[in-house]
Amino acid sequence: MGTERFDILVRGDLPPIIVEEFVGFDVVRTGSGSTHLLGTVPDQGRLVGLLELLHGFDVEIESVTHVPGRDD
Fold first, then answer.
1. CB under 8 Å to 61, separation ≥6 — which residues?
2. What does the pLDDT look like over 20-37, one tens digit per residue?
3. Which CATH number fits the domain that encloses residue 36?
4. Residue 72 domain-assigned?
5. Residue (of 41, 49, 46, 35) closest to 67 by Cα position
6. What does each C-alpha distance from 63 to 10, 47, 53, 70, 71 come to in angstroms?
7. Could you tell me the pTM of the whole model?
8. Widest Cα–Cα separation across the chain
9. DSSP conformational letter for 3
10. What's the mean per-residue pLDDT of the chain?
11. Which domain of life is it from (predicted)?
12. Which of 1, 10, 17, 50 measures 20 to 30 Å from 66, CA to CA?
């Protein structure tokens, strides 16, 4: 896996300490009580690390969606 774009949907609002770890991500709060984290990760290890961070802060992950690029 090279650099790829993902949309991570989580339940609720995220505290600033978590948002700071998502450098380069767009953080979009929905009206339905969820937050989208949309951004690019350089490799699978970084993606797993971000998901583990969310898990460690007891943030409920609703979905992780690969966002295809022009070459996908």
1. 8, 9, 10, 11, 51, 54, 55
2. 888 889 999 888 889 999
3. 3.30.70.3100
4. no
5. 41
6. 7, 13, 15, 22, 23
7. 0.86
8. 35
9. S
10. 89
11. Bacteria
12. 17
